Amino acid sequence: MHPYNRLPSSGHTTPSPPPSPLRSPRLRHGRSKTGRFNPPGRSLVQRLTWHVLSVLIRRQGVFLFAPLLYISGMLLYMGSVSFDVVPVIKHRPAPGSVYRSPQLYAKLRPEMDADNSSTDAISTIWKHSYKGGEWKPCTNRSSGGFPDSNGYIYVEANGGLNQQRTSICNAVAVAGYLNATLVIPNFHYHSIWRDPSKFGDIYDENYFVSALENDVRVVNKIPEYIMERFDNNMSNVYNFRIKAFSPVQYYRDMVLPKLLEEKVIRISPFANRLSFDAPPAVQRLRCLANYEALRFSSPILTLGEALVARMKERSAKYGGKYISVHLRFEEDMVAFSCCVFDGGKQEREDMEAARERGWKGKFTKPGRVIRPGAIRINGKCPLTPLEVGLMLRGMGFDKSTFIYLASGKIYNAEKTMAPLLEMFPNLRTKEMLASDEELAPFKNYSSRMAALDYTVCLHSEVFVTTQGGNFPHFLMGHRRYLYGGHSKTIRPDKRKLAILFDNPNIGWKSFKRQMLNMRSHSDSKGFEVKRPNDSIYTFPCPDCMCRANKTEDSKPSSPV
Known about the structure:
Number of helices: 24
Distance between the termini: 109 Å
Largest sheet: 6 strands, parallel
Shape: globular
Helix content: 40-55%
């Protein structure tokens, strides 16, 4: 059929297309009499193969059977293969996701023990100075004189030692801001810490009241005539449920009117119920409470100072300088972290029992997925005693260094503590430094034992934190307050450590270089000024401290 022509007809027909050219004579001679292509000089197999291909090409419908032929072939092949042995696909864990520190310790130990290049690290560690000079405490006290009180504030401090400390200092600040009278805070008993201690068991109550006498009224109890209105039952007093980190304006707008109406209010719980950022007058009261008014009770202070003296006496060769390490490897900490170490089945059973005992179903809720490898990579696993030892030896502290270990009961201590004691035989704990008779009044009270650790760590030349929490944060701030603004604290990069501890190819020199860089970074971060949303209890500059000249000696106030 010819294509449609839109031009008017001229009476002539469209010429036919030229004929197709003849096939090549070479190909034409190659045809057989039957008209099929049969290349000469081929073997029988080749001719048969060529014949089949030519049929498939000429009869394209045959390709419809190709899937059936493929499936048939696969079935025949699968039927001839034995599946008794299933091929194993090896999956390599992500770097840093598996606990391999024991293998690394075994590899590095010969070189580590043979390394004699370390200098006196404990005397040369802190080199960084603040560019504007040192800082000095400048928490001023008022000269006295109060208007009439707007009422009484009763708070319940929950948590462990330093979480309770947060509650106390914030309560002082709120009471002063609202011109209220603060009742000595009540310590809430918690199933985790299991410590029934009262305020006076841990802190010097009389000193606390007298230190604040010109700034905030503090009393032991609410007057009888007021409590009679509530049948002498504190649970009948109106309780504010305040959101965490509420601004001071909330207390002025919501709490103060109720206080004026009732003359007494209760706030429970009270930990972290005040914003980190507040007006200077409120921050000053926080500083005054934390660094000046809170002093440990006489029994704790006496034994704590004795432990400090004993550590300094043992480290007299180094000028009385020692390292303190806050090690969080107690059973509840290991369980809460959900990290996996090398304890196998026994460790797994212990951790599952500890989680259920302490948090009752929190970790077994439907849909909750726990990824121990991801936790380790993110630096959230507590450092083991072995890892702490490797890190400190890499930072240049030799085995003669004296170390005070602040910790609760270490999980599986006989096994986990052995490598650390091999690396640092001069390691001491409060149980090693004090007699059973000296520790008897404190042994069944976790907060009192923590207060002893706090005191010894406060006066060490170097403080090493291995896990987050209120204990190291308060200590860093208190050390800054005492030591011219420098925390003198090693804060390891745990994400980096996880990768280094998982590297089987790293040598001692390379590992040591990485650790010295980490130590230097902690030195440079020793001086830090509070930024918005930072805690004043960790960063006391500039709210609690003032600039001092470089040549002026910083004279710290008496420690708590």
